[in-house]
């Protein structure tokens, strides 16, 4: 009986080796995303490496698992059967390894974060610096963009956005207090063109616009006696993010609209002045969000702990 059991265990170990766990991991990433580039982003390899691994796996298995065309990637019936059979087991393995990581004195691993540009400057900069000091084993891949992306579909562990733009099906945790939005310009520009006292006067000024992901220009938002309202501006110059318009405003190009916290140091040293402050409005703070259907990486948990301790923006 003992010999039979030993033989069975040895045979099972050989099957696992022949199956090639790495190829299975690649296959499951493709099955999740149905996109070789996104699967590669999750795995940290190129799309061609993913494709090559799949071809080798299919050759060894002797069956096609993925249908590939120039327009789509779909699972074959064999691929669907394999995905259903092994995905639960791999999820259990991932959870077990993640639980082990929680027991380490210094968690490790890699986390991928997609964040709106201003959040990187104002919140993630100090938080990630402290994360690096406390947990040098954690690797961070940060992509900053004002374009709204599907963080799960594009292989990110989490996203950081303004509260009002977080997808409803995500778990969200606040990273900052609510934020004040203001208009600013250099003293030189205001001396040359005058200081606006009402948002209606913006049409007579050079305004620096921010282009959104849908190519529209962001409408400047204000709060008056009758409540919140926004103003469409005719942009003298446009850019993809507030760092660019800030750089132009510092050099006298025109009025810029953005977070008061982003302008604070330049206001303090006299390089910028705030205008229309009586009309300034408050908006939702920054939130970190992630899918509740995945195990939260140890690195992400550590980052959230540090953010709660530091409170860069309150």
Summarize the structure.
The protein is of the alpha/beta class and 314 residues long. 43% of the residues lie in helices and 23% in strands. The protein is elongated and about 75 Å long.
Relative helix content: 40-55%
**Number of contiguous helices:** 10
Count of strand segments: 15
Tell me which oligomeric state these chains represent: single chain
What is the terminal separation in angstroms?
66 Å
Fraction of residues in β-strands? 15-25%
Largest β sheet strand count, sense and barrel closure: 6 strands, mixed
Provide the fold topology.
Elements: H1 2-19, H2 21-33, H3 36-43, H4 47-61, E1 66-68, E2 73-75, H5 77-102, E3 109-115, H6 117-134, E4 138-144, E5 158-162, E6 171-174, E7 179-185, H7 187-193, E8 207-210, E9 220-224, E10 227-231, E11 235-239, H8 242-250, E12 255-259, H9 260-268, E13 273-275, E14 281-283, E15 286-290, H10 298-310
Helix pairs in contact: 2-3, 2-4, 2-5, 3-4, 6-10
Written description of the protein model:
- This protein is α/β, with parallel strands linked by helices.
- Helix content is 43%, strand content 23%.
- The protein has 10 helices and 15 strands.
- The protein has helices at residues 2-19, 21-33, 36-43, 47-61, 77-102, 117-134, 187-193, 242-250, 260-268, 298-310, and strands spanning 66-68, 73-75, 109-115, 138-144, 158-162, 171-174, 179-185, 207-210, 220-224, 227-231, 235-239, 255-259, 273-275, 281-283, 286-290.
- The strands form 4 sheets. Strands 7, 8, 11, 12, 13 and 14 form a 6-stranded mixed β-sheet that branches.
- β1 and β2 (73-75) form a beta hairpin.
- α2 (21-33) crosses α4.
- The longest helix has 26 residues, at 77-102.
- The protein is elongated.
- It starts with a helix and ends with a helix.
- Residues 4-15 have low confidence and may be disordered.
């Amino acid at each position: 009986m003992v010999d039979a059991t030993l033989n069975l265990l040895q045979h099972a170990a050989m099957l696992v080796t022949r199956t090639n766990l790495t190829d299975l991991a690649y296959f499951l990433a493709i099955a999740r995303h149905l996109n070789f580039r996104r699967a590669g982003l999750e795995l940290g390899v190129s799309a061609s490496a993913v494709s090559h691994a799949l071809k080798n796996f299919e050759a060894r298995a002797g069956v096609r698992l993925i249908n590939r065309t120039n327009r789509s990637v779909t699972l074959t019936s064999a691929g669907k059967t394999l995905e259903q059979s092994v995905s639960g087991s791999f999820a259990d393995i991932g959870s077990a390894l993640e639980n082990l990581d929680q027991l380490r004195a210094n968690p490790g691993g890699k986390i991928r974060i997609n964040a709106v540009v201003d959040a990187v400057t104002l919140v993630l900069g100090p938080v990630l610096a402290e994360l690096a000091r406390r947990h040098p084993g954690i690797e961070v891949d940060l992509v900053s963009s004002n374009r709204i992306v599907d963080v799960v579909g594009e292989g990110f562990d989490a996203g950081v956005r303004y509260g009002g733009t977080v997808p409803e099906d995500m778990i969200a945790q606040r990273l900052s207090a609510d934020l004040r939005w203001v208009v600013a310009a250099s003293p030189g520009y205001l001396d040359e063109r005058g200081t606006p006292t009402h948002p209606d006067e913006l049409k007579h000024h050079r305004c620096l616009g921010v282009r959104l992901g849908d190519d529209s220009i962001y409408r400047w938002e204000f709060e008056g006696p009758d409540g919140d309202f926004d103003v469409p501006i005719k942009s003298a110059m446009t850019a993809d993010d507030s760092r660019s318009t800030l750089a132009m405003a510092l050099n006298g190009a025109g009025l810029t609209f953005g977070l008061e916290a982003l302008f604070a140091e330049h206001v303090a040293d006299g390089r910028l002045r705030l205008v229309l402050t009586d009309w300034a409005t408050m908006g939702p703070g920054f939130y970190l969000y992630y899918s509740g259907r995945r195990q939260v990486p140890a690195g992400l948990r550590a980052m959230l702990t540090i953010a709660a301790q530091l409170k860069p923006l309150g």
